[in-house]
Design brief:
By secondary structure, this protein is α+β, with helices and mostly antiparallel strands. It contains 16 helices and eleven strands. Helices cover about 45% and strands about 15% of the residues. Helix 10 crosses helix 13.
Length: about 450
């Protein structure tokens, strides 16, 4: 990849910060304030003129009540559709006039906030963020459009083999009520269609507020000015509470070890293969298992790609990774796509690699290479304002102290071969894993 001079000017000051904090620590440079319940973190770096804003509220899909899985999604999706002061076009124009961006996204656990602007325009962007969070218009016309858009997207998802494989996998490994258990697409469509605007307004009134809001600003930031801007823009806003925890059933349902979602006229079959781990990201064994998993399926140099794709030519892509564990216990999975005619061979080849990896473990050279690679990737990630802001936010979400930003590379280096191979056997069992196949699965023996 070729970097132009502008990109280099942005990267080098952040890289210098990462190096200079080897002794003092990145965490020592982060300024943290509590502003009427808002957890505000700011970090000034060597980048000039640019500020990245990231934030979260604990109001992702998991916050929806059991009888309406679409409620949190629809509520969060109305934030940028106009306020009581400005319609959505005026908001978009105000951002466009200064070359800034600001968006919201509803994930499994959180409502995510993402913004970027010039430093001189950060007061404006913070004020627009506050306006959208504090006073959404909830226009009936815009709500109808949002419903229609989601119904259309969900109907497309019904025809997507990757989505159907992953969603069915979640229902096979997670109990009823678990936040990581995906609602069936047809049920989600029905929920979107039956949700009323009054229900959305009531959900907003009950749960939205400054309490539990986290904001992170990274770049050419004046911490004192940022604190004043947030205090001014959010002054007088009250409320906000955590949604009630879902009642989780004692054991998974739909847990047949092998399931097929037949979808006609598809050129590929999507396969998701794995199990729930019972681990959160910050659990003691999680890092070792994550690194060991990266040896198996972490990219082009990993075993799965090297054997199933490169040597045997059975797939264009196959990966292994841990997922959905930032705030809850998550899962371990392999994801791959195979041509229908190569499905049996692909699964057999994948099984050979999985069992060999599980039973024999990783080698010392593989472990050393992945520790070096992951440490390097982490440091590169910190070299941009986006990467740094995301790392700060993820560190907090995962339940670490900010010092983890500096401790992570050392924690990687401290992993031993025996430790990594032991946790693979401790937490995973290929014989108990679930395989979901979605697509035009051949109706031949063994399928």
């Amino acid at each position: 990849m070729t970097l132009n001079m502008k990109t280099l000017r942005l990267l080098l000051p952040l890289a210098a910060l990462a190096l200079s904090t080897a002794h003092a620590g990145i965490a020592d440079y982060i300024v943290r304030d509590d502003i009427n319940g808002i957890d505000l973190l700011s970090l000034k770096t060597g980048v000039k003129e640019v500020v990245t804003i990231k934030g979260t509220l604990p109001l992702g899909n998991a916050a929806s009540p059991a009888d309406n899985p679409a409620l949190a999604l629809l509520t969060g999706s109305m934030l940028d559709k106009g306020t009581t002061t400005h319609d959505k076009f005026a908001l978009a124009q105000a951002l466009d006039n200064v070359g800034a961006t600001l968006s919201f996204g509803v994930g499994t656990e959180t409502l995510a906030i993402n913004g970027k602007c010039l430093a001189k325009d950060s007061p404006l962007v913070i004020s627009l963020l506050a306006e959208q969070l504090r006073s959404p218009a909830f226009s009936p016309e815009e709500f109808a459009k949002v419903q229609k858009q989601y119904v259309g997207a969900l109907k497309q998802a019904l025809d997507n083999t990757n989505t159907q494989a992953a969603d069915n996998f979640s229902r096979a490994i997670y109990p009823l009520g678990h936040p990581n258990r995906k609602t069936a697409t047809t049920e989600m469509i029905a929920a979107v269609e039956r949700t009323t605007l009054d229900e959305v307004k009531a959900f907003y009134a009950e749960y939205y507020g400054p309490a539990h809001l986290t904001l992170v600003l990274v770049g050419d930031v004046d911490s004192a000015a940022a604190k004043a801007d947030v205090a001014k823009s959010f002054a007088g806003w009250t409320g906000g509470k955590l949604p009630p925890a879902a009642a989780v059933a004692g054991s998974p349902v739909d847990a047949a070890n092998e399931q097929t979602v037949f979808m006609a006229d598809k050129t590929n079959v999507s396969v998701v293969w794995g199990q729930a781990t019972g681990l959160r990201y910050n659990d003691p064994d999680a890092l070792a298992l994550r690194v060991g998993t990266d040896v198996l399926g972490g990219g082009f140099s990993a075993r799965l790609m090297g054997n199933v794709r490169d040597k045997e030519g059975l797939t264009y892509g196959i990966y292994g990774f841990m997922a959905n564990d930032n705030l809850r216990d998550g899962d371990w999975r392999i994801m791959a796509n195979f041509a229908p005619a190569l499905l049996d061979q692909g699964i057999a080849s994948t099984r050979r690699q999985l069992v060999k990896w599980h039973d024999e473990g990783v080698t010392a050279s593989e472990l050393a290479a992945r520790i070096s690679g992951l440490s390097g990737e982490y440091k590169v990630g910190l070299s941009t304002t986006d990467g740094m802001a995301g790392a700060i936010l993820s560190t907090l979400q995962r339940g670490y102290q900010l010092s983890w930003l500096d401790e992570y590379p050392a924690a990687l280096s401290a992993l031993t071969l025996d430790q990594v191979n032991a946790v693979i056997k401790k937490h995973l069992d290929p014989a108990k894993m679930v395989i979901i196949k979605a697509g035009t699965v051949p109706t031949t023996p063994g399928n």
